[in-house]
Design goal:
The protein has one domain: Growth Hormone, Chain: A (Up-down Bundle), CATH 1.20.1250.20. Helix content is 80%, strand content 0%. It contains 17 helices and no strands. Helix 12 crosses helix 14.
Length: 410
Amino acid sequence: MSDKENRLPIVFILITLVLDAIGIGLILPVMPDLIKDIEGVGLSDAAVWGGILATCFAIMQFLCGPLIGGLSDRFGRRPILLLSLATMALDYVVMALAGSIWLLLAARVVGGVTASTQATASAFLADISKPEQKAARFGMVGASFGIGFVIGPLIGGFLGELGPRAPFWAAAVLATANLTFGWFVLPETVTDRIRRKFEWRRANPLGAFRQIGALPGVRPLLLLFFLYEFAMWIYPAIWAYFTQYRFGWSPGTVGISLAMFGIGVAAVQGGLIRVILKVLGERVTVWYGLSYNFVAFLAIGFVDSSTAVLVMTPLIALGAVVTPALLGIMSKAAGDDQQGELQGLISSIRSISMVVSPLVMTQLFAAFTRDGAPLILPGAPFLLAAATMIVCGVVFAARPRAGTTATHAE
């Protein structure tokens, strides 16, 4: 397919990824009220249930990423993407109508499965991209998430004024409209040449890790990816608590700052990443991103000026170049018939970070801010994130690069 023929399918893929991110951010403003409405409990108990729902969502992403990716390697990207979108739309309808917490929990479990479409979407981009185009197009994946991260909470907060269930109806309509669009414009990219037999032993995170981890130099990159995602999830995990404690920010200010961050990520991964990759190459881009984020985390951890941190927020996104560069390196190392499996495994690793990072970061924040703490240091989670960037650098430097495939991957 030519670049011109790819235009509409790429638009569909990017809209799908934006909807995935919107689905995460959309429910954040209204979930407390929805849980209180369903269960008749107070805010504290609602928060406990909210944590359970978020954890179940992330666990299902972890478990189902390789499964969805492997199915797309066998049956094609088109049917998996369209079926996932149809299920996603139905899932939003169920959440809008849910009258019990258990039905809401079941919907979040199904939502975690359908959110694994990012693996298939990324594999589609890998199918239609030349080797030199892959990293830049994976940057578009990050940009789509950034856009959704901005739009989701804004839509959820605005429609939430109409009631806690209104955002879910809106999300169902958006998913259905995109499903209709995809039905007409999305081609199939999995041909008999690259079609791979589906095997249950590979359609799970451990099986996929054994297969993909056997590729030269890829296993350390998977570890690096997990550590990097663990550090970067500090923003949705701790930002609201940190800024309220240190600067007394209101929810409105927190929302604006997160929107600024999301816009910055979208700009960097949607456009600037192409320039950076062209000038620096993938390997040096990873080094630049790790170094930049190390400095940014240190600055946030110690700076005590509210204005300075607010100004820094969009600038932090200039370090959001590591993920597309890493995905480009790993995609080149994998075969054409492994792209869905690779992206599914990456989706699972990201999901693990989504489970682990909030638990670690919030506990660390509490330990250094509670009454009687031997040291008051609300920026402690950011210092941990900075230290994690150092570990990422060590892993990247120490990875084996033997063989022609590893060399080509850089």
